[in-house]
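Notes, Module 5: Reading structure tokens.

Key idea: the token line is not a picture. It is a compressed description, and you learn to read it the same way you learned to read a sequence, by spotting repeated patterns. We will look at two proteins. The first is printed below with its tokens.
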Amino acid sequence: MEALWKECKPLLIRVWKDQKPPEDMQLIDHVISEIHLVDAQSHAFRYWESTDKQGRKENLENIKYINIRHFRDHMSTVTNFLDGVSSGLGSLLDGIHDER
């Protein structure tokens, strides 16, 4: 997820180069970094048991506590931002298509 965001973020900034990047991007950076620390391959949150390429178990057994409200609030911000990006890119593509 972190690698994907690092590739995607500069593209989004370039697409909307005439606008200041929203503060939500800083939160997304933080959320993705925090998740990456405990789940670098994005498997542990999705699968009960999984292993990495070296055969090591990937799970959340070392996580003692997750503040679900805090997580939900941050993920809501991430989701809303990405929904907006999706809508905005769709509108841009529709505009390009209409010009042809």
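Here is the second protein, with the sequence above and the tokens below, as before.
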Amino acid sequence: MYFEIIGEITEIETIAADRAIRDILHLKKRYGAGRWRKLKGTGMVRLSNGKIRQAGIHWYEAHGIGKKGVKIKRFLDCNYSAMSFRRKPESRRSREWIPCQARGR
């Protein structure tokens, strides 16, 4: 799903830096060397269908290179995550998709 970040990202936190990032080899190969950090924050996004939602956003960033790999991790204006899984009570291995309740949005 394509989206556009509207306004400013708030509550920015560093999740991991340099060797603690799983995709560090991919980032260095594709974008070049730098002090890579994985960050998270919240912000308003405009989805491809035109809806505006508040979302948890994750991305990679390096000085002089900028933001790369920006993705929506979850929507914050509903009860459930739009992209999360919950385990079924009868089985530990199976997963059940739980969609976000739109509630008229």
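Summary for the second protein:
- The CA atoms of residues 55 and 103 lie 16 Å apart.
- The chain has one domain: 3-78.
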